[in-house]
Amino acid sequence: MRELTSEEIKKLVELASTAKEFAYCPYSNFRVGAAVLGENGIYYTGVNVENSSYGGAICAERVAIIKAVSEGQKKFVALGVCTYVRVPN
Protein backbone atom coordinates (compact mmCIF):
# COMPACT_ATOMS: atom_id res chain seq x y z
CA MET A 1 0.00 0.00 0.00
CA ARG A 2 1.24 3.48 -0.82
CA GLU A 3 0.33 6.94 0.37
CA LEU A 4 -1.88 9.03 -1.87
CA THR A 5 -0.65 12.34 -3.20
CA SER A 6 -2.60 15.46 -2.31
CA GLU A 7 -3.63 15.72 -5.99
CA GLU A 8 -5.05 12.17 -5.93
CA ILE A 9 -7.01 12.90 -2.76
CA LYS A 10 -8.35 16.15 -4.22
CA LYS A 11 -9.42 14.40 -7.42
CA LEU A 12 -11.16 11.57 -5.51
CA VAL A 13 -13.14 14.13 -3.49
CA GLU A 14 -14.03 16.22 -6.54
CA LEU A 15 -15.14 13.23 -8.60
CA ALA A 16 -17.20 11.74 -5.77
CA SER A 17 -18.81 15.11 -5.06
CA THR A 18 -19.71 15.66 -8.70
CA ALA A 19 -20.96 12.09 -9.13
CA LYS A 20 -23.44 12.36 -6.25
CA GLU A 21 -25.53 14.75 -8.32
CA PHE A 22 -26.42 11.79 -10.58
CA ALA A 23 -27.68 9.57 -7.73
CA TYR A 24 -31.06 7.95 -8.14
CA CYS A 25 -32.60 8.35 -4.70
CA PRO A 26 -36.33 9.11 -5.00
CA TYR A 27 -37.14 7.50 -1.64
CA SER A 28 -34.50 8.87 0.72
CA ASN A 29 -33.30 11.94 -1.21
CA PHE A 30 -29.89 11.03 0.23
CA ARG A 31 -27.34 11.43 -2.56
CA VAL A 32 -24.06 9.55 -2.39
CA GLY A 33 -21.19 9.63 -4.86
CA ALA A 34 -18.05 7.53 -4.89
CA ALA A 35 -14.79 7.44 -6.81
CA VAL A 36 -12.18 4.70 -6.89
CA LEU A 37 -8.65 5.01 -8.16
CA GLY A 38 -7.53 1.94 -10.01
CA GLU A 39 -3.97 0.69 -9.87
CA ASN A 40 -3.86 1.64 -13.56
CA GLY A 41 -4.26 5.34 -12.63
CA ILE A 42 -7.83 5.61 -13.93
CA TYR A 43 -10.64 6.94 -11.74
CA TYR A 44 -14.08 5.30 -11.81
CA THR A 45 -17.20 6.88 -10.32
CA GLY A 46 -20.48 5.56 -8.98
CA VAL A 47 -23.67 6.71 -7.29
CA ASN A 48 -26.29 5.16 -5.06
CA VAL A 49 -29.26 3.70 -6.93
CA GLU A 50 -32.40 3.10 -4.91
CA ASN A 51 -35.22 0.68 -5.52
CA SER A 52 -38.66 0.54 -3.92
CA SER A 53 -37.53 -2.84 -2.63
CA TYR A 54 -34.82 -1.72 -0.20
CA GLY A 55 -32.80 -4.89 -0.81
CA GLY A 56 -32.60 -4.01 -4.49
CA ALA A 57 -30.74 -0.76 -3.84
CA ILE A 58 -27.02 -0.50 -4.53
CA CYS A 59 -24.52 1.78 -2.86
CA ALA A 60 -22.25 4.21 -4.68
CA GLU A 61 -19.07 2.36 -3.71
CA ARG A 62 -20.30 -0.87 -5.27
CA VAL A 63 -21.32 0.90 -8.47
CA ALA A 64 -17.86 2.47 -8.83
CA ILE A 65 -16.11 -0.85 -8.21
CA ILE A 66 -18.45 -2.72 -10.56
CA LYS A 67 -17.76 -0.17 -13.31
CA ALA A 68 -14.02 -0.57 -12.81
CA VAL A 69 -14.15 -4.37 -12.81
CA SER A 70 -16.37 -4.38 -15.90
CA GLU A 71 -13.58 -2.47 -17.65
CA GLY A 72 -10.90 -4.91 -16.55
CA GLN A 73 -9.55 -3.16 -13.44
CA LYS A 74 -9.32 -5.43 -10.39
CA LYS A 75 -6.73 -3.71 -8.22
CA PHE A 76 -7.41 -0.45 -6.42
CA VAL A 77 -5.39 2.24 -4.69
CA ALA A 78 -8.12 4.29 -2.99
CA LEU A 79 -11.83 4.88 -2.55
CA GLY A 80 -13.51 8.22 -1.84
CA VAL A 81 -17.14 8.73 -0.83
CA CYS A 82 -19.07 11.99 -0.70
CA THR A 83 -22.53 12.96 0.49
CA TYR A 84 -24.05 15.89 2.28
CA VAL A 85 -25.25 16.47 5.81
CA ARG A 86 -28.91 17.07 6.42
CA VAL A 87 -29.62 19.56 9.13
CA PRO A 88 -32.78 18.71 11.09
CA ASN A 89 -35.47 21.39 11.22
Automatic annotation (TrEMBL):
Gene3D superfamilies: Cytidine Deaminase, domain 2
InterPro entries given in the database record: CMP_dCMP_dom, Cyt/Deoxycyt_deaminase, Cytidine_deaminase-like
CDD domains to which the protein is assigned, alphabetical: cytidine_deaminase (cd01283)
Residue ranges of domain CMP/dCMP-type deaminase in the record: 7-89
Pfam family, one: dCMP_cyt_deam_1
Database matches in PROSITE patterns: CYT_DCMP_DEAMINASES_2 (PS51747)
Superkingdom in the source lineage: Eukaryota
Entry similarity comment: Belongs to the cytidine and deoxycytidylate deaminase family.
Protein name: 34574_t:CDS:1
Organism of derivation: Gigaspora margarita
